[in-house]
Design a protein that fits this description.
Length: 240
């Protein structure tokens, strides 16, 4: 599937955004897809995120993928980006991408969700805290939700009370970040905030169990089960 490329200005820094349009006519529900770490040096290198966006578009969702690492040179190492990452920058990126998506004529602006894996899973949670318009959030094994990024940034878990949409989560029971204990804390925070949510936890799966480019991490059975549950949840809140 071919995708379009747009650039939006975020605090005087141009951010690349990839757009994946379903083949059939709209209006379509929309998905803001938070990218995975492998694309930090360019989304063209992130096969997993590109294929995930294509699969969502094949299921009738108009998908945008913002390049949230535009604040650094692409050749900069992930260790630098990890250390210097700031949640206020990420929130600004998500808001700009959301506005781009919601403004599309082919998109139903009242039916937009946010989805993310790994680093993007944390970003999806953070986005749900700051984008009250989103109708559903899906978090795949997002770690470090209990830690803020950038001086003075609260931990996303402490912002659970700001989430206005249902949340679905997918986690491997052999993961270390987030660990099963972390996932328990995520569950408690959402429950305390009265956020509707459902978590799916998989035995025999560790971190990034949907990462098909990695034979070591990928678990096909658990991944496909998660895909089925994800699409059912998105359909429930974005199509009905």
């Amino acid at each position: 599937m071919q995708h379009a490329i747009k650039f939006v200005d975020v605090d005087d820094s141009p951010m690349e955004v990839l757009l994946f349009r379903p083949e059939r006519e709209g209006p379509h529900p929309g998905i803001l897809l938070a990218m995975h770490i492998p694309g930090h040096n360019g989304l063209e290198h992130d096969t997993f995120t590109l294929k995930t966006a294509e699969r969502l578009a094949d299921n009738g969702y108009f998908v945008v993928v913002p390049f949230i690492f535009h604040w650094w040179p692409k050749q900069a190492g992930m260790d630098v980006k990890r250390q210097e990452s700031r949640d206020d920058w990420t929130v600004a990126d998500l808001k700009a991408a959301y506005e781009l998506l919601a403004a599309r004529e082919e998109v139903d602006a009242d039916a937009i969700g946010i989805v993310g894996h790994c680093w993007g899973g944390r970003v999806a949670w953070l986005g749900a805290c700051h984008l009250p318009e989103v109708k559903v959030c899906a978090v795949f094994y997002g770690g470090n939700v209990k830690t803020g990024r950038g001086e003075g940034s609260p931990a996303p878990i402490d912002l659970a009370g700001d989430i206005r949409c249902p949340v679905i989560g997918f986690f491997g029971n052999e993961d270390k970040n987030p660990s099963p204990e972390d996932v328990d804390d995520y569950d408690k925070a959402l429950t305390a905030a009265d956020v509707p949510h459902v978590f799916h936890r998989y035995d025999g799966a560790g971190h990034a169990f949907q990462m098909f480019p990695s034979a070591e991490r990928y678990r096909e059975e658990q991944s496909e089960d998660a895909w089925d549950k994800l699409l059912g949840y998105l359909n429930q809140y974005l199509r009905e």
